[in-house]
Amino acid sequence: MTESDEFFMQQALQLAQQAADAGEVPVGAVVVCDGQVVGEGWNQPITGCDPTAHAEIVALRQAATALGNYRLVDCDLFVTLEPCTMCAGAIIHSRVKRLIYGAREPKAGVVDSNLQLLQAQHSNHRLQVVSGLLADQSAALLTDFFQSRRAAKRELKNSLKEG
Fold first, then answer.
1. How far apart are CA 35 and CA 43, in angstroms?
2. Active site residue 56
């Protein structure tokens, strides 16, 4: 990991905050090529009515459009949370050089937590994976988001009981 890795992960965290502000699960992603951001995204499946609008997919689409190629062979993908199956597939197909992620996702993560999909023998692309970069900040953003949602649900439930 380098100082620039931390810089780009900070950008992904800012995008994750945008997702949280919109009521989406706070995940952010940044695609970097030759030291420049060429794609960015945050979770937006609810606001976009699009089940594929995970932060990684949004960022990869933007990067592919910016570079004029769906192959992102010289690019790094920074994401605040360990990718799911759908996103891992997109990462493989886009041929990114490096995946750098923050917090582990014990339920749906498939890079390290579960299937280790990126290392599968049948995969036709291998990439470098760096895990745990700014993991505490990434995890705290998620924890705060879900605690806030649970508290809001409790308040609503209590107000309905009292009413």
1. 23
2. yes
Cα dihedral: 128, 134, 139, 141 (round 10):
-120
Q: Is the pTM of this model over 0.85?
A: yes
> How far, in Å, CA of 33 to CA of 45, rounded?
26
- 133 Cβ neighbours under 8 A, 6+ residues apart: 1, 5, 6, 9, 78, 100, 101, 102
Q: How far is CA 86 from the centre of its chain?
A: 12
- Catalytic annotation, pick one of 40, 56, 82, 105: 56
Residue 163, pLDDT above cutoff 70: no
